[in-house]
Amino acid sequence: MLHRLSIGGGISSQTSTEWTTNPGRPLGNGKYDSSNLRVGGYTLINLMARYRLAKWIDVAGNITNLTDKTYVRQAGFYDGMIFGEPRTFSFTIRGHY
Question: Which InterPro entries match (predicted)?
């Protein structure tokens, strides 16, 4: 039975990043703060498992961002920040012939 099971995972890491702001963040009165934005680093852990039910059908489950790490994946225009995905679960049933 275990020969039908596949498990896996991955770790990805990003060091801190610095974004250039051009022309900068408006401060009012026509002035701008043109200092760079610094975003901290992060590490993500992902897991997967797949089981072959029959010769033609598999079921699989995935967990991304296992530790539910809050992280910024992009920063930029007027201090705008785009956050990365929170912990996510997915389940798949796949048939093949």
Answer: Beta-barrel_TonB_sf (IPR036942), TonB-dep_rcpt-like (IPR039426)
Can you read off the two tokens belonging to residue 10?
């991955």
Quickly tell me which residue has 């963040």 as its tokens.
Answer: 25
Measured over the CA atoms of residue 66, residue 67, residue 73 and residue 79, the dihedral's sign is positive
**What is the pLDDT at residue 79?**
65
- CA dist list (Å): 5 to 2, 38, 45, 49: 5, 43, 20, 7
Q: pTM value?
A: 0.75
Under DSSP, the state recorded for 23 is S
Of 68, 73, 95, the residue nearest 84 (C-alpha): 73
Query: Which amino acid is residue 16, in one-letter code?
Result: S
Residues in the chain with pLDDT < 70? 21-23, 76-79
